[in-house]
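User: Here's a chain of 338 residues. Predict its fold as tokens.
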Amino acid sequence: MARRVVTVPALFVATAALLVLSPVLALVAGALDLARRARGAPTVRLLAFASAYLAYESAGVLAAAWLWVTRPWHPGRWHERNHRLQRWWTAGLVRAAGPVLGLRLEVEQQGPPSPGPLVVASRHVSVVDSLLPAHLLGVQAGMRLRYVLTSGLQLDPCLDIVGHRLPNHFLDRRSTDRDRERAALEHLATGLGPGEAVVIFPEGGLFSPARRDRAVARLAERGSPRLATARSLRNVLPPRPAGTLALLRAAPDADVAVVAHRGFEPLASLRRLWRALPLTEPVRLRVVHHPRATVPDDDDGRVRWLDDQWTAMDRWLSGGSPAGLAFVRPGGDAEQGG
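Assistant: Prediction complete.
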């Protein structure tokens, strides 16, 4: 509550200020683009998306308040109504990003999609790419999602309020009580059923070359047998397996989907996004579905399997084309990219 006393009023003040000042800000943004001779009006686009984001945030918080007020009349539909609000919020932001930012998604599916239960392990290079599983599986496939999120996202009022109403876990990376965090993840995946998925970002943070080097250095200090594999990675962080292992243990019947994507790199920061707008290349996603029978049963085997998936993902990102990519499955067989 102490956090929301600050973040919710700040959201409404920022939304109102942007609404009042939007004519002036639009003129300033347009003048800046003209002075820079920037094609595609990137500053105007960034301002427009900020307006859309604040509008959806404010509407989402107001809708969440309405759901709370009317909860006594709809007690049995509480979770479903919040899932619908989550899907509406996600769909609105992705829809706005199309014409405003130039975002286009090209999705390739490998293997038959699972009806759930499903554990989703996704690449992480931008805060925005956390919307991808929610868009693909929640909005388009209608699945109910559970998320492993970083605690910093609680500063987003809509994610904070609705995220705590649904079965999600905000992971505290600074916590020294790792057993407690693992137990929370196992609890999150317990009871996962048909039509449900739990999403995790095994890299544990946004990719950057400096962060990759620090991750490799930590593995070297521990004398980890994973060091050689980690040193070979160029475009992804070596996955932190503990969270994924906890989810797999708690959901023994869940299939696994590995989500790779290429094209979100310009969205890693506002500065890079400002320089890249409008996006001219589509964001390419490759979702590889793994039946549970193809995933090793023991933790050591699962760690090697997860490293194999990220190594294959790294090769795809380095190659510039999915042609020739092999997503390695247990037993040494491989599935060629299209």
